[in-house]
Amino acid sequence: MPEIPVFNHETVLSAISASEAIERIRHAFVEYASGEWTMPPKVYLDAYPAGDFRAMPAKGGGVAILKWVTSFPGNAAAGLPVVMGVICVSSAEDGRPLALVDARAITALRTGAVAAVAAQELGPEDARTVGIVGCGFNGAWAARCLAAAEFGPGMCFDLDAEAAGSLAGELGWEVGSLEDALTCDVVTCVTPGDQPVVREASLHARMHLNMLGADGPGKAEAEVGAVRACRLFCDEWRQASHGGELTGAVEAGLVTRDQVTDLGAVLTGAAPGRQAPDEITLFDSTGLAIQDLALCLAVLAAHRAGTVKAQAVRI
Ligand SMILES: NC(=O)c1ccc[n+]([C@@H]2O[C@H](COP(=O)([O-])OP(=O)(O)OC[C@H]3O[C@@H](n4cnc5c(N)ncnc54)[C@H](O)[C@@H]3O)[C@@H](O)[C@H]2O)c1
């Protein structure tokens, strides 16, 4: 077997700018919606109560990937990341392994980037202010991507005042209360999803909500009534209806398939996005392997161009 490169956390983050991630994620949704890229359903392997593992395959752009990644929400207390893992990239032509990539960095960049794409597509045209609820690792990258897409200024809220302060300081934004964050045009929630942070009473006209934290069974960041009151969008219906922010409302019989539009359909022009400036839109991001694929292609391109170096291993 030839040697393959291993892209560690820092290399991934230096290979792809937030702006490039946003463009690549937009492209991934279009390719998938057009049937060019394929993605079997993600498989959950539970390790409750600590967390769960996910196996996420996708194919497109000449490669196939398998992402093996965790969500262990209590890990922060032990000084460990919530999301960790590795992505195997193989040639889709002959199956050869091509690279191993840090899943944590790819996840944060692609999750942040889809928040920016959803805000651009679904938020009101003049949306600027950003509320970040949950300023941990993935919340911080969502904020960076929204800032790269020229949203802001932002209001950062976290139960951990230090996390909110550090993110606000980095981006020149402010620290505020949950109520302050929820008054913004684009509210992005990235908490562990163990208690609702968005209530029906917190909704206001023109608001766009990115719900990123609830990415598995039993997690939710919004009250079911709040979800029902919004025009609904998701990254992918199968995932969102079984392990996303929409799941509670779907299980309660309050939301059905015909009330939810996939982001890819909006991006390809097959379905409308926001239909009135005053309405409230909610995007449920559960995280797709096609997003990971898009950013693995970006890392490989940066490596080929000599922009980043990687350690090589023979497997
Ligand atoms: N949708 C996706 O694609 C996707 C991708 C990555 C992570 N996630 C999910 O996002 C969540 C956060 O992941 P992370 O890696 O950023 O974790 P993290 O531990 O780094 O950050 C979570 C932050 O939320 C804060 N928090 C907890 N409860 C809160 C509350 N009620 N109000 C405000 N802040 C609160 C914590 O203090 C912490 O700073 C997890 O549930 C993870 O599974 C989803």
Could you please describe the fold and organization of this structure?
- By secondary structure, the chain is an alpha/beta fold.
- It folds into 2 domains: 3-106 and 290-314, 2-Layer Sandwich (ornithine cyclodeaminase, domain 1); 124-287, 3-Layer(aba) Sandwich (Rossmann fold), CATH 3.40.50.720.
- The chain is built from 11 helices and 15 strands.
- It has helices at residues 9-15, 18-33, 103-122, 137-148, 161-171, 178-182, 224-228, 237-243, 247-251, 263-267, 289-304; strands at residues 3-7, 43-47, 51-60, 63-71, 85-91, 97-102, 130-133, 154-157, 174-175, 186-189, 208-211, 231-234, 260-262, 281-284, 311-314.
- Strands 9-8-7-10-11-14-12-13 form an 8-stranded parallel β-sheet. It has a 7-stranded mixed β-sheet with strand order 2-3-4-5-6-1-15.
- Strand 3 (51-60) and strand 4 form a beta hairpin.
- Helix 2 crosses helix 3 (103-122) and helix 2 (18-33) packs across helix 11.
- It is globular and about 60 Å long.
- The model has no long low-confidence stretch (mean pLDDT 97).
- Nicotinamide-adenine-dinucleotide is lined by residues 71, 73, 76, 82-83, 107, 111, 133-139, 157-160, 163, 190-193, 195, 197, 212-213, 215, 285-287.
